[in-house]
Amino acid sequence: MQVKTDTKERFHAITVLEPALTATMTDELGDCLLPFLQNDVKNLVLILKETVSIDIAAAEKLVKIQQQFYENGASFVICELQKQVEDFLDQQELLELMNVTPTESEAWDIVQMEEIERDLMGDE
Q1: What is the pLDDT of residue 121?
Q2: d(CA 49, CA 114)
Q3: Domains plus CATH for the chain?
Q4: Which has the closest alpha carbon to 84: 21, 24, 29, 26?
Q5: What is the pLDDT of residue 123?
Q6: The pTM of the whole model exceeds 0.85
Q7: Rounded Cα–Cα distance for residues 117 and 1 (Å)
Q8: Which residues of the chain have a pLDDT value below 50?
Q9: In a 10 Å sphere around its CB, with 0-12 CB exposed, 13-18 middle and 19+ buried, how is residue 83 labelled?
Q10: Which residue in 54, 74, 79, 72 sits closest to 117, CA to CA?
Q11: What pLDDT does 4 receive?
Q12: Distance between CA atoms of residues 7 and 13, nearest Å
């Protein structure tokens, strides 16, 4: 699976360069994204602007990966979904389980807010 990684101060922006995310790529998705949980900067923004189709197995894998990030105190935000991918996820009732924003800038805002929230919750 081809991706482009851009490391920012508080998160990694991963752009998937594949036009389709298929069931055969589900293990690869995990292998590509989960190692970021071992880094000092654990937050991840997944940019899917190049992806025009996704199948159910890959979509369900993304939901599971997102859950693993949150269980490990890290943010996982998906952004720049193509309309047809967003519609498919909505039809499969998976969109509501995902942390999705229209732009990378909004994803960055979510990561910042979640970091503040984790800091506040940790102080209690």
Answers
A1: 87
A2: 23
A3: 3-123 (3.30.750.24)
A4: 21
A5: 59
A6: yes
A7: 33
A8: none
A9: exposed
A10: 74
A11: 96
A12: 6
Contact 116, 85 (CB under 8 A): no
Which amino acid belongs to residue 65?
A: I
Is there a contact between 86 and 53 (Cβ–Cβ < 8 Å)? no
Residue with tokens 């069931």: 23
How many Å from the N-terminal Cα to the C-terminal Cα in the chain? 42
Measured CA distances, 84 to 20, 50, 89, 100 (Å): 12, 12, 9, 14
Residue with tokens 């996982």: 76
| Residue corresponding to tokens 């036009």 | 19
**Phi and psi torsions of 60, nearest 5°:** -65, -35
pLDDT at residue 110, as a whole number? 96
User: Which 3 state secondary structure label does DSSP give 111?
Assistant: helix
